[in-house]
Amino acid sequence: MLADEKHHIVQGEYFVSEDPRAVVSTILGSCVAACMRDPVAGVGGMNHFLLPGEGAGQEGLRYGAYAMELLVNGLLQRGARRERLEAKLFGGGRLLKGLTDIGLQNAEFAERFLQDEGIAYGGGSLRGDHARRIQFWPVSGRVRQQKLVGDATAFAAESRPRERRAAQEDIELFDDFGAGRRPAARETGNDLELF
Amino acid sequence: MPAPASISTLIVDDQMTMRALVRAALNQIGITEIREAPDGEAGLRSLVSSPANLVISDYNMPKLDGLGLLRAVRSYAPLKNTAFIMLTGRADIDLVARARQFGVNNYLVKPFTTQTLKQKISEVFGPLG
User: Fold this and answer.
1) CA-to-CA distance for B16 and A117, rounded, in angstroms?
2) What residues have CB less than 8 Å from A100, skipping those under 6 apart?
3) pLDDT at A137
């Protein structure tokens, strides 16, 4: 079995691949990552965005729409078809109490985008009060989420995710990425399984 | 100094979200006569049946992309004077050069602000009244 080809993205970036060995990871606080793929074309990708400024204001929404467009266009250019796209969403956490819930705005924007664009929403893990490490295999659609538990402020500034330290709890997601079907989610303590 | 309300505009983009955001920005500027099309082919059909003063078009689209739409507009006599603004991504410098060759009037880099959109339209039509 060939080793995974690992890629890491940070806020404002996206990654698209048709390589079955590719796995893309990111760390999310209030940011959102969309994991999107076309199972027929065998191509998938992930982005990582944060609505700037007032979040749900016009400028923020335009930025979010552009972040999603980059991912969608990257997939279409590699042979994906818009009508076959399916997506999972992660992130949008509220790490700092008392401030504007920008994580909620990011999550709501992403859900609305999928709905408006007719892209099948396959569930995921949005909101909550914790950060997440996401690994996504773009071709198979498998997603693995690790809930990151630690000092919330360590995740607030997401510009340097590689340097973060936190206690981690591994969570494996068993994921067939069914089109148009939102998997049931079950929370058991700190663990989240999608099935 | 054209009145914004007098500039009939066609927005061409395959993302409904982006069309809605461009429409909202145009409304803020005072442009209210707005049509939309989801790809270049539909945009061209719309223009042939009813010309517009201004086309704001995305580049990456199915069927007919923004550059194809621009070329079609410039090569069809009844439409050749239509003002054409191309929406581009930050990395599309080559696209801007090619669009200029085909007679684009201006371009707008996404994600854009309402003020930038207004400025780009003013550069084509003159100061908006």
Assistant:
1) 6
2) A55
3) 96
Q: How many CB atoms sit inside 10 A of residue A79's CB?
A: 12
Residue A22 belongs to domain with CATH number: 3.30.1330.200
Tell me what ipTM this predicted complex has: 0.83
Nearest CA in chain B to A63: B111
Task: Report the chain A residue with the minimal C-alpha distance to residue B61.
Answer: A73
B18/A69 touch (CB, cutoff 8 Å), yes or no: yes
The catalytically annotated residue of A9, A23, A31, A194 is: A31
Of residues B101 and A154, more confidence is placed in B101
Nearest to B25 among A58, A63, A82 (CB): A58
Which residues of chain B neighbour A84 with C-beta distances below 8 Å?
Answer: none
Enclosing domain of residue A164: 5-194
Number of domains, chain A:
1
Is B126 contained in some domain? no
Q: Are A128 and A94 in contact (CB under 8 A)?
A: yes
How far apart (Å, rounded) are the C-alpha atoms in residues B38 and B14? 4
Tens of pLDDT, residue by residue over A69-109, are: 999 999 999 999 999 999 999 999 998 877 778 899 999 99
For residue B75, what are the domain limits? 4-117
- Region A49-76: mean pLDDT is 87
pLDDT at A191: 41
User: Does a structural domain hold residue B60?
Assistant: yes
Task: Give me the number of domains chain B comprises.
Answer: 1
